[in-house]
Design goal:
Helices cover about 45% and strands about 10% of the residues. The protein is of the alpha/beta class. A hairpin with a 4-residue loop joins β5 and β6. The longest helix has 18 residues. Bound molecules: iron/sulfur cluster. Iron/sulfur cluster (SF4) binds next to α6.
Length: about 220
C-alpha cells in the first residue's frame, strides 16, 4: 500500500501526524493509554473480524530491551498478551537465562491482532499496524530491539532474508538507529531444540551490545 493511501486511512482515524514510517515524531502523539485504546478499537486492516481481542504488548514502559515478534497466536488471541503458551514460556526462560525477568523488558508483536489460522501477516496488514508499533518504540526508546523470528526481523528491517543470514550482526532501526539483533522465534525452537544454543549466543551478543550502548 502506498503512503498516500495509508495516510488517508490513518487520517480518517485521526492519527496522521505520527503514523508514517520514518516520520518525524509528532505533536499530539498518543500516550500509552490513548495508544492502547486506539489499538483495542482498531479496524484498519480487517483482522478485527477474526480476533478475539487485540494484543497490545506488555512489560516495562522504560525498558532497555524491546522484544518484537510476529503476530498473536491462538493463546495470545485468547489471553490478550503476547508470547504466552509454550513458546512464551520458552521466551521467558531465555530472558531469565541472561538475567532478565519478563517484566524487565517490553514484549509486543508487529501485528496486534491474530491472522486467521496463524498465517503470516500480509504486507498490507503490517503497513497498517506499523503506526502503533512505531509509537510504542518512540515511547519506550529502547537501547536494543530483539527481533524474534524472520517475519518480525524482515518487517522491521525492510529485508527478505532467512534468520540465519540476519543473526550475529547489529542492524539499525529507524532514524534513531536503535541497535537491532535478530534471533529465532521460540516457536521454532520448540520444533528445533538443537537451535537453542544459537539463541543463547544471540542473547549474549545482544546483552553485550546493550551494555556497551552501541554496536561494534
Ligand atoms: S492488526 Fe493492527 S491494523 Fe490490523 S486491525 Fe489489528 S490493530 Fe488494527
Amino acid at each position: 500500500m502506498d503512503n498516500g493511501l495509508r495516510n488517508e486511512y490513518l487520517n480518517a482515524m485521526g492519527v496522521q501526524q505520527w503514523v508514517a514510517r520514518d516520520a518525524v515524531v509528532p505533536v499530539d502523539a498518543p500516550d500509552w493509554t490513548e495508544l492502547e485504546n486506539m489499538v483495542s478499537g482498531c479496524t484498519l486492516c480487517g483482522l478485527q473480524e477474526s480476533r478475539t481481542r487485540t494484543v497490545f504488548g506488555v512489560g516495562n514502559h522504560n525498558a532497555d530491551w524491546l522484544v518484537i515478534g510476529e503476530a498473536p497466536g491462538a493463546d495470545e488471541d485468547r489471553q490478550g498478551e503476547p508470547f504466552v503458551g509454550r513458546a512464551g514460556q520458552l521466551l521467558t526462560e531465555m530472558l531469565f537465562a541472561i538475567g532478565l525477568q519478563r517484566d524487565d523488558v517490553f514484549i509486543c508483536n508487529i501485528l496486534k491482532c491474530r491472522p486467521p489460522g496463524n498465517r503470516n501477516p500480509s504486507t498490507e496488514e503490517v503497513d497498517f499496524c506499523h503506526a502503533y508499533l512505531q509509537r510504542q518504540i518512540e515511547l519506550i526508546d529502547p537501547r536494543l530491539i530483539l527481533a524474534v523470528g524472520g517475519v518480525a526481523a524482515n518487517s522491521l528491517l525492510g529485508l527478505n532474508e532467512k534468520v540465519g543470514a540476519l543473526r550475529g550482526k547489529v542492524h539499525r532501526y529507524g532514524e534513531q538507529e536503535i541497535p537491532l539483533v535478530v534471533t529465532y522465534h521460540p516457536a521454532y525452537l520448540l520444533r528445533s531444540p538443537l537451535e537453542k544454543r544459537k539463541v543463547w549466543k544471540d542473547l549474549q551478543f545482544a546483552r553485550a551490545i546493550c551494555a556497551n550502548g552501541q554496536a561494534e
